[in-house]
Amino acid sequence: MVKKQHKVVLPPALPPEVPDEEIELSDEDVKFVQENKEYAGFVSKLDTHSITKHVSRVADADEALLESIYEKRLKRKLENKVEANTELEVDPVDALPVKTLDGQLYYRRVEKKQNEVEEESTVKDSSIAKLSKPEKRAKLKKSRKDAKKLTKEIEQKTPQAEVLDEVRKDLKAEETAEKKKYRLAELGTALLADPESNIKNVKEMLDMLKGGDISIVMLALKSLLAVFKDIIPGYRIRLPTEKEMEMKVSKAVKKMRFYELTLLSTYKEYVKRLVALHQKRLYKRVAVRCLCTLLAAVPHFNFSETLLAYVVNNIGSQDDFIR
User: Fold this and answer.
1) Contact 237, 263 (CB under 8 A)
2) Which of 50-59, 73-82, 132-141, 246-255 has the lowest mean pLDDT?
3) In 3-state terms, what secondary structure has residue 261?
4) Close Cβ partners of 228 (under 8 Å, ≥ 6 residues apart)
5) Which of 219, 221, 189 is nearest to 294 (CA)?
6) Helix (H) or strand (E) holding 61
7) Distance between CA atoms of 201 and 181, rounded to whole angstroms?
8) What start and end residues bound the annotated signal peptide (predicted)?
9) Please, which residues bridge with residue 156 across strands?
10) pTM above threshold 0.85
11) Please, are residues 217 and 283 in contact by the beta-carbon 8 Å criterion?
């Protein structure tokens, strides 16, 4: 009887070795191992030498035979690699394919020139050199800077850049105006709901008169007019004397005194703004209308003489709306 030879089956190729410096452990992995030391202790007791030998070699096989098989496999891989590098596949459009019995298509191949093969090999060799982590970060940072610089240069060169800047400014101005309008509505609503607790809101509304947006200034003038008409008391506010200020008073009196003083100072500032704005052509009609409305609504309150003087001065105006 002829003794059958057992075919030696080589183990699968191992994955490429990774240097210890490139292995990165996450904090979660380290934490898990530290918390479960009693379960992970067996790893330190493993016989890595025998495991490596068993994986890299076939058990109960001739070492010389294995060496020859490995050498043949390596030689075959190198030959295939050289053939692939020295042959150039032709575009399917330019050459008719040949169909084999197993159904695969093969196209005509042209040998590459020696110079092309050498160039490719040099490129591959240069790409093999790996960069360290700091070098990679520096390279990435530099590429980002170059991209930003290029984008800025393109925007500066293109004629649409100025138009885009103008559109952005307009959008920002519109957003700011909308926010101010909502803020005016919030402040006015809070004042009308509880004047004593929210009397400080009047100062913020007065600050909006300093802006250059005409629509916001006019809206602030009208909002303050509605607020003052509603919260001004039915009596004239008298400033306390020095002796009265030194006297001890209750919390309720302090609160009322603070409210009246703040109301009087903000109302005085509002009247000053109306007087200043009524001299400007853009705001003249709105300012005069506010002066007249205040005089008609609260003629008993402080600074009514100032209101009356400016209303009388505008009686002879040539503008029918103001007159």
Assistant:
1) yes
2) 50-59
3) helix
4) 267, 270, 294, 298
5) 221
6) none
7) 14
8) none
9) none
10) no
11) yes
